[in-house]
Write a structure and sequence with these properties.
96% helix; mainly alpha; rod-shaped
């Protein structure tokens, strides 16, 4: 009778142990699946970040090109502004030189 009872207890113990081991294996299997999914997401995230970095490098090159064009444009505008001031001063001088004799003639000095 004791042997049967001991055999029955051991049988129940091993059945529960088997269920627990299967449950633990199922949890580990799901954890492995989750970890694989996380690794795939991380790899896709790294690929996305690399793509964004490439886009940012292209934007940096384009902005540098635009900046150099703006500097050249500012230099050209400065040069044209100097020419414009020179022309205005030349025209003003010419007009004054033309008006002074006329004014002197009207006033009777010439």
């Amino acid at each position: 009778m004791k042997v049967n009872f001991l055999a029955l207890c051991l049988s129940l113990f091993f059945k529960k142990l088997k269920k627990n081991i299967l449950f633990i294996l199922a949890i580990l299997n799901s954890n492995v699946y989750i970890l694989e999914h996380i690794i795939k997401m991380r790899m896709s995230l790294e690929e996305r970040v690399a793509k964004i970095e490439g886009i940012l490098e292209q934007m940096d090159k384009r902005l540098n090109h635009i900046e150099s064009n703006m500097i050249n444009l500012n230099k050209r505008i400065d040069s044209l502004f100097k020419w414009l001031i020179g022309l205005i001063l030349g025209m003003w001088t010419t007009i004054m030189i033309t008006l002074i004799p006329i004014l002197l003639k009207i006033l009777g000095f010439l």
